[in-house]
């Protein structure tokens, strides 16, 4: 698969240009592009710039809005219920995690539940937001029904996301997962790269395992991770995010990329911030010791050492740093060239084009 390099600054410029074309105000551009580019930087390409086309469409059709602000419905010292007002998911997510952190500063824990949200993108982004202020972060969000329960052929739950982050002095843990074997973005990414997928990721329309991304996307029947374990975890997330928040849940959620959607998805989310100092004074040191005990365990293959949650993503970040640019498949760049033409914005430029232009300016 042929790829090309795009400078991070130009990728951000392109995202901002596209968002401005559909009306998003300048003050809100950075918030959205931060989440999109963080996904690509960490190698979670299914939720990065690959999602921009769908965000643009939902904004344009007002399935999500940029001209509203999330609002607190009710709150206590440690908890809050938020109405996302169908705002762009990144705006709702940042608002809720920031609110959870403020409550954790006062009460040791902040538990925020929101309804009427949209796709929040990279869940780890919000956990990192809590970690940056010394808190443990926990993030959950429900999603459109595209995952089957074990023994069934009908999608009744979303590939709901879960992120958990905690930071020590020398190490950190960042779990960012879907409750399905793979989220739909990974299957879209495989189709874009013209690759087969493992047949334990998804079913086709006949209810049989498939290795073809196109058939998997048409059927929208993902297998749960760990069979009943992933299914039960997804159900728990949907109860907290959907049932308890007043948002949509299960098959009440429309397939948010479908042309027949017709209305906002009304997703729910949970943001939790915990102050570990309430429980132990030396949490960071204890977490470092915990991580050391895990990573020092004897691997089956000495060439494949034990990795902590989030370490693969960290390696991808180092890879991008070495390249000094984001690697994107040429087919993705071609797709966004068409979108750029449609919106009358400058397309994504390859990194060497940016450098040549900079030298000419100098």
Automatic annotation (TrEMBL):
Pfam families recorded: Ldh_2
One GO MF term attached to the UniProt entry: oxidoreductase activity
Record keywords, A-Z: Oxidoreductase
Keyword DNA-binding: no
Keyword rRNA-binding: no
Membrane-spanning intervals of the chain: none
InterPro entries given in the database record: Mal/L-sulf/L-lact_DH-like_ah, Mal/L-sulf/L-lact_DH-like_NADP, Mal/L-sulfo/L-lacto_DH-like_sf, Malate/L-lactate_DH-like
Family: Belongs to the LDH2/MDH2 oxidoreductase family.
Name of this protein: CG18808
Species whose genome carries this gene: Drosophila busckii (Fruit fly)
């Amino acid at each position: 698969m042929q790829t090309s390099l795009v400078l991070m600054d130009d990728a951000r410029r392109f995202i901002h240009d596209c968002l401005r074309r559909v009306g998003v105000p300048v003050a809100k551009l950075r918030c959205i592009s931060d989440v999109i580019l963080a996904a690509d930087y960490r190698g979670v390409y299914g939720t990065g710039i690959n999602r921009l086309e769908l965000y643009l469409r939902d904004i344009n059709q007002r399935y999500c809005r940029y001209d509203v602000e999330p609002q607190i419905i009710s709150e206590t010292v440690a908890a809050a219920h938020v109405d996302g007002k169908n705002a762009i998911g990144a705006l709702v997510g940042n608002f809720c995690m920031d609110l959870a952190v403020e409550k954790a500063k006062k009460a040791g824990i902040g538990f925020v539940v929101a309804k009427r949200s949209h796709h929040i993108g990279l869940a780890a982004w919000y956990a990192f937001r809590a970690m940056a202020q010394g808190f443990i972060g926990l993030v959950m969000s429900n999603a459109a029904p595209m995952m089957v329960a074990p023994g069934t052929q009908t999608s009744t739950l979303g590939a709901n996301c879960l992120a958990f982050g905690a930071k020590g002095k020398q190490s950190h843990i960042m779990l960012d997962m879907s409750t399905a074997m793979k989220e739909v973005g990974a299957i879209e990414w495989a189709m874009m790269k013209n690759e087969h997928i493992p047949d334990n990721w998804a079913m086709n329309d006949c209810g049989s395992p498939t290795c073809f991304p196109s058939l998997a996307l048409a059927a929208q029947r993902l297998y749960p991770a760990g069979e009943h374990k992933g299914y039960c975890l997804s159900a728990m997330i949907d109860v907290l995010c959907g049932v308890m928040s007043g948002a949509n849940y299960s098959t009440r959620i429309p397939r948010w990329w479908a042309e027949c959607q017709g209305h906002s998805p009304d997703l729910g989310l949970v943001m939790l911030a915990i102050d570990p100092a309430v429980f132990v004074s030396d949490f960071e040191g204890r977490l470092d010791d915990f991580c050391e005990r895990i990573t020092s365990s004897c691997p089956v293959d000495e060439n494949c050492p034990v990795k902590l949650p989030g370490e693969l993503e960290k390696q991808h970040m180092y890879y991008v740093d070495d390249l000094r640019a984001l690697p994107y498949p040429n087919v993705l760049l071609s797709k966004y060239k068409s979108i750029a033409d449609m919106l009358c914005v400058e397309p994504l430029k390859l990194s060497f084009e940016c450098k040549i232009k900079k030298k000419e300016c100098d």
